[in-house]
Amino acid sequence: MLRIVIFALFFASLTGFAQNSSTETEQNSQQQVPAATVAPQPVSEQVLDAEASIAKSDLKGAEAKLEAWLAAHPTDARALFDAGYIADTENRLVAAVDLFRRATEADPKSFEAHLSLGLLLARQGNEDDALPVLEKATQLDSGQANPELKARAWRALAQINRDDDPEEASDDLLEALKLTPETLDDTLLAASLADQAGEYAAAETGYRRVLAKEPNSAPANAGMAHLLIARKQYPEAEALLRLALKGSPDNPALTAQLATVLADQNKAEALPLLQKLHETHPENESITRLLAQVLSVAGDFVGSERLYSILLKATPEDASLLVGHGENLVRLAKFAEAYTAFDKATQLDPADGDGWSGLAFVASQTNRPSVVIHALTMRSKYLSEGPSTYFLWASAYDALHDKKSAATYYHHFLDSAAGKFPSQEALARQRLLLLDK
User: Fold this and answer.
1) For 232, which DSSP code?
2) What pLDDT, in 10s, does the model give residues 8-24?
3) What DSSP line would sit under 142-207, residue for residue?
4) Could you say which of 1.25.40.10, 1.10.860.10, 3.40.120.10, 1.10.3210.10 is the CATH number of the domain covering 4-212?
5) HSE of 365 in the Cβ direction (CA atoms, 13 Å)?
6) What is the pTM of this model?
7) What does 62-130 look like in DSSP terms, one character per residue?
8) How many Å apart are CA 66 and CA 383, to the nearest integer?
9) Which sequence spans correspond to the domains of the chain?
């Protein structure tokens, strides 16, 4: 279980919803480790001269001196680190990674080289490679380096671990806070971890604490909106998001949340808002998925299906996409194709009750009563029964000539329908009369 006690050191309760929009991940990885901060050791005059040029911002001059030195001394860890620093500063990132990596190999105890390599790999999105390098950095003696540099390594680790190992991320953050004071970015990260732990009241406290200092913080507003949406407090979420978008009018995450809130309230504004957002971010899978759902609710099944087809080409094994795809096919009366979609979805995710619901319905439409019974049996593990499922049970047993079971479910259907399904109720009464005979 996530150890929330960590964050109690800094504020009474903690915070929710993971937001990778900016904050600590970028700050930790984009800020470079200063050159020439390695622990005292014998250093050549040529390297010291190059470092003096770096201090004067003469990077070209320093680079030339280091290249000449490294040509004759290719395993000089300090020179490799300085050369990597220059390459990183000049945005020659492939060269910087190579030089920093060579520096760590030349001196496995170099804190600065490991930290610089790990942060650079994280900045490039290569978190799998960055993780062990940063872990090694936290275990090394930072020497004369500022404690903030060691704290930066811990914070970068926390950001990398936040999704896959939130408990480890909380430990990482604690280590950073032992070295440096808490920042608002720490509060936001704690918010994300607390939400993953289900500490929603604590999450709200944390987000409000951030918003009290930075009312326009997009991640904090998004996190707070997430909590309100989860509680189905749609008017409150809408008001918060509209205010937040005044400060960040082009923020796609906030806009998508607002569209979600509007859709949940059946407000027509949701659809054009999402269509505009999709035009701006056509490659964003989450936005495309949300637009497909809203189009389906709005009755544009053809438009929705077009988007589902695009999504499924990219991720054909996504069960939730297959369910949405199947629901559209049902509304388009393409029952055979819908059967294929629901059958695959339930194989991929047997715990999706909606998938079993869809499979039961299309099986009934394609004369597969045994499949209807199986699908409804599986569905009952996850969702409650209602008039529609009772009628499907009854019809399937009727088709299989199981008169007793069919009659039982026809009675269940009539008891629960309460006049809301007149056509089916008339049919159920007629079948009961025949079954009784």
Assistant:
1) T
2) 222 222 222 233 333 44
3) -TTS-HHHHHHHHHHHHHHHTTT-HHHHHHHHHHHHHHS---HHHHHHHHHHHHHTT-HHHHHHHH
4) 1.25.40.10
5) 17
6) 0.67
7) HHHHHHHHHHH-TT-HHHHHHHHHHHHHTT-HHHHHHHHHHHHHH-TT-HHHHHHHHHHHHHTT-HHHH
8) 68
9) 4-212
